[in-house]
Amino acid sequence: MPAKGKHRRPKSQRFIRSIAVAGTGGAALALPLLGATGAHAATAESATQSVSSLSVTANSIAAEAVSAKSEKASKKSRTYSVRAGDYLAKIAQEQGVTGGWKKLYSDNRTAIGADPSLIHPGLKLSIGRKAASTSSPTSSSGSAEASSSSSKSSQTEATQPAAESATAATSTAAEATNTSSSSGFNLPVAGATIGTGYHVSGSMWSSGYHTGVDFVVPTGTSLKAVGAGTVVSAGWGGAYGNQVVIKLADGYYAQYGHLSQLSVSAGQSVTAGQQIGLSGATGNVTGPHLHFEIRTTPDYGSDVDPVAYLRSKGVAVG
Predict the structure, then answer these.
(1) Which of 156, 214, 232, 268 can bridge 196 by disulfide, Cβ–Cβ 3.0-4.6 Å?
(2) Do 303 and 202 have their domain in common?
(3) pTM
């Protein structure tokens, strides 16, 4: 007889239970596998989106960098139109040209020419870059014809300014005749008062004193030859800035300093009262004025009292 209180379980039940357990185990194993598959798919999709997003961001940054660089280059390189009263040192300072007026002149030498002090209103200057050469090669076919046409055009354009200059010179000479003293001399600038006088001592001058007189005038005031003579120099004079030195008919020399613009050139003959340039503030100055000297030679250090000289010529100096 079977032992009391003990029963045998049918084998079929154990088999079913095993299937159930196996099934449960299979389900337990299947679910994580399905979950893993979904996770891998989501991760791949997210990675693709991230790469795409990074690519767009990188392209945007690159575009912004190129735009910024282009804008910076545009601001750095520009064209400036010369105005009345301008001179290279002033333009270089106002426009922040690294290297000063010498760099500005070097970049625009083709447009300015051999004399850096001879610039005129309307002249286009390149700021921040070397100006392109105005000359360009021509093709072999029709080159002679093009050259001839260009030459005729240049001659036509040059004729008008030359005629205007001649008219202006005649007008200036007539004006000089009316304003000159009986001795043929006049003031270097009309209606101006004297600021710093002759022989005023001071450490700011290399000689220890003022070698001329300063006529207080604003930039752009017309400056006149005090007498007839020949221009011996016209250009940059260091501390004097743009200067003109004229050998007068009596053998003395008149020197004009700190000009903003020159109207004459070396070797040119001038008459009393003829415009030789415009006043300014070039060189070592604290403000616009005309520094005027009378010398016994064209060189610094041979100065005499300019006021006494003018008065000896019958010119009234206030």
Answers:
(1) 214
(2) yes
(3) 0.47
Q: With contact defined as beta carbons under 8 Å apart, do 125 and 91 qualify?
A: yes
Range ranked top by mean pLDDT from 102-106, 140-144, 174-178: 102-106
Coil/strand/helix, residue 3: coil
What's the pLDDT tens digit per position in 123-163? 889 988 877 654 433 333 333 333 444 444 444 343 344 44
Number of domains in the chain: 2
Length of the chain: 318
Q: Which of 242-251's residues contact partners 24+ apart within 8 Å by CB, and which partners?
A: 242/87, 242/117, 242/277, 242/280, 242/282, 242/283, 243/283, 244/276, 244/277, 245/298, 246/270, 246/276, 247/298
Q: Which residue is associated with the tokens 């767009």?
A: 56
* ∠ Cα 244 250 251 (to 5°): 60
> Widest CA span of the chain, in angstroms?
168
Domain that residue 90 falls in = 78-127
